[in-house]
Amino acid sequence: MKTFGIGIVGCGNISTVYFHNTPLFKGLEVRACADLNQAAAERQAEKFKVRAVSLADMLADPTIDIIVNLTVPNAHFDVSMAALNAGKHVYSEKPLCLTLDQGQKLLATAKAKGVLIGVAPDTFLGAAGRKARELVDAGKIGKVTGGTAFIMGRGMEHWHPDPSFFFQPGGGPILDMGPYYISALVNVLGPVKRVSATSTIGKPERIISTPDSPKLGQAIKVETPTTIMSVLEFASGASVLFGASWDVMKHSHPPLELYGTLATMKIPDPNFFGGAVEIADASGEWVSVDTSVDPAGAINWPVEEPKNANYRVLGIADLADAVRNGSPHRSSATVGVHVLDVLLSILRSGEERRPVDITTPCQQPAAWTNDALSALFA
Ligand SMILES: NC(=O)c1ccc[n+]([C@@H]2O[C@H](COP(=O)([O-])OP(=O)(O)OC[C@H]3O[C@@H](n4cnc5c(N)ncnc54)[C@H](O)[C@@H]3O)[C@@H](O)[C@H]2O)c1
């Protein structure tokens, strides 16, 4: 089996889990890393025993097959485009880019260069996302007519060391956290056809309060909506109410609930890979389906004190498998562009106070069996 050389671009907060998880999968090896901030690249290079290089050197390196783009959202397009133009496969953190036009350019360039481009999240490919998909596909909850999705909290300025980007265009709860929810819903229900939303900025300014941040006490001007309430209409006929906010101190909504003609289903936090899927039929009793026994479901993160299942890199393993076999991959940028269209359309609907039709085509990603997925683990 070919081993794919990986180059990680962007050595910030999320890069650690990518470095750490890559060896969990067969045929993947991180060989180099790069960052605008040379010290950040050198820190991760030393910790994970890889080479710290410039982006240009990484792109010219024939031993690097896949560029993993973990830069901040407004750098995603340029870095991914440069990598595609260098003939590399790309896997980008979310959001894929900031405009639909950029998304289409990335897809067209990947096609022209004969390489694949994938995008996070790959969380929906975890044990819980796969179980929810399996149960819906098997008709266990009947026809899905509705649902709710809620990602609400008080913001990011109290835990992230450098949270400014969350409050600029490209950030906000819709583009930052929305990809997990919309991807999870598209995985289970298929494409979205129309969205309607309202939006507002809760506080014009945020003060960084992350205890050990070098920017502690600095103010961030908020330039993107922080509370967005929307309704998503799926091509399947289902409608999902989606609340996304960083202006909420506390709430009691589950992350995702689907209402079927036979049963209601609760899907655990789509920011993680595991958790229990719960179903209640006409009897009114919740039945819990544990997914921690399934591949990519066992609790493993954070390493020092594991509380969640975190198998980031699963989408890269799927992409590499697709390159080997010429088969479609699941967290593909085609799905990513549709998800981006939904997210940007929610923001546009909120701004323009009118429903927005979703124009980008998207096929529901192929279902993934435990056996097929297990085969990718080392
Ligand atoms: N932090 C998380 O928990 C988390 C979780 C999931 C996804 N993400 C996503 O991962 C991405 C990175 O997030 P983060 O929290 O690690 O951010 P971060 O700010 O901690 O790290 C980003 C790094 O990218 C570097 N960078 C920026 N532009 C660059 C460029 N043009 N070329 C090379 N390096 C560049 C920065 O110097 C920085 O070191 C974002 O898209 C974010 O949405 C983050």
Automatic annotation (TrEMBL):
Residues 4-119 form the Gfo/Idh/MocA-like oxidoreductase N-terminal domain. Residues 130-265 form the GFO/IDH/MocA-like oxidoreductase domain. Gene3D superfamilies: Dihydrodipicolinate Reductase, domain 2 (3.30.360.10), NAD(P)-binding Rossmann-like Domain (3.40.50.720). InterPro entries: Gfo/Idh/MocA-like_OxRdtase_N (IPR000683), Gfo/Idh/MocA_oxidrdct_glycsds (IPR050463), GFO_IDH_MocA-like_dom (IPR055170), NAD(P)-bd_dom_sf (IPR036291). Keywords: Oxidoreductase. This is Gfo/Idh/MocA family protein. It comes from Lacibacterium aquatile.
